[in-house]
TrEMBL record:
Name this protein carries in UniProt: Uncharacterized protein LOC114250292
Bias-annotated ranges (Basic and acidic residues): 24-43
Signal peptide span: 1-20
Segments of this protein annotated with the region Disordered: 22-52
Gene source species: Bombyx mandarina (Wild silk moth)
């Protein structure tokens, strides 16, 4: 059954607009530096639905935590990186030197990665704690749905599976030169490698996803924002694709209801983005 993935107010909304749950990248200029703000992921856990929740404010994201990554670009380097949480119209910095966010879909928590390891943020109490004892510089993170295990992508583009409550890591040798990582709802691991090419990690090694346009200029990968049985969400430019564990793919076209819900979320995210930008500029 198709339908945009919606988790009711106070719970998780999994959305990336151009990719699966991702707000398009927002830029603004200040102090001669380019500040990029990217919505990485939203809050935690909930039920799937195909309708937009009704609430008193009319905003789809009322009472939901939306995470943003803010960084300054100097040359080819991203500096002054921070993760912010936006909830009920207010934004707060929750972790400096962070670029990675992944939600736990069964609990009100999100896992954040920064230059010295993994942190867990409780979206109800708004408390942040160090998770485990690893000290890797984490630039990507993905939480399994069926266990407490995580996958992390480090600054040197190596992928590890993190087990035993963040105290042990196992290198995923099949994932080479990874730029992004994501899991599907079955916990299959996908990654973007060199030249924006997507791969799926199978038992017999990494397999390049087939059936996609050649020479993409950009690629974004994540969990799908729609209720599908298998596969991850990939965006080349503005075109979304479903990519499958058997290394095949197909373009995805929103039906009318999905398109309406998708557009409403984008409008609401734009409002949240403006609130967020205004607050951090004050």
């Amino acid at each position: 059954m198709r339908g945009l993935l919606v988790c009711l107010a106070g719970l998780l909304v999994c959305l990336k607009t151009a990719d699966s749950h991702s707000m398009p990248q927002k830029d603004y200029d200040a102090d001669s530096n380019k500040h990029d703000i990217t919505n990485r992921l939203d809050d935690t856990s909930g039920n799937n639905s195909t309708s937009v929740p009704d609430n008193s404010s009319g905003m789809f994201y009322s009472n939901i935590t939306v995470f943003f990554v803010r960084y300054v670009t100097r040359g080819d380097n991203k500096v002054d990186k921070s993760i912010y949480a936006h909830k009920n119209g207010k934004a707060k910095k929750v972790l400096e030197d962070g670029m990675a966010v992944s939600c736990c879909y069964l609990k009100s928590r999100a896992y954040l990665g920064n230059k010295d390891g993994i942190y867990v943020y409780d979206t109800e109490t708004e408390k942040l704690e160090k998770y485990g004892n690893l000290s890797d510089n984490v630039i990507g993170i993905a939480k399994e749905d069926r266990s407490d295990d995580l996958y992390i992508l480090t600054e040197d583009h190596v992928v590890y599976k993190v087990i035993e409550e963040g105290t042990k890591k196992i290198k995923v040798n099949e994932a080479e030169h990874a730029e992004q990582i994501a899991l599907d709802w079955d916990d299959n691991l996908y990654y973007i490698g060199a030249n924006n090419q997507p791969y799926v990690v199978a038992s017999d090694g990494a397999k390049k996803i087939e059936g996609l346009p050649a020479n993409p200029t950009s690629a974004l990968i994540s969990k799908p924002p729609i209720t599908i049985e298998h596969g991850a969400w990939l965006t080349f430019g503005k075109q979304p694709y479903i990519i499958y564990p058997n290394a095949t793919s197909e373009p995805y076209v929103f039906n009318d209801q999905e398109k309406l819900e998708h557009e409403k979320r984008n409008r609401d995210l734009d409002v949240i983005f403006l609130q967020f930008r205004n607050q951090i500029e004050e």
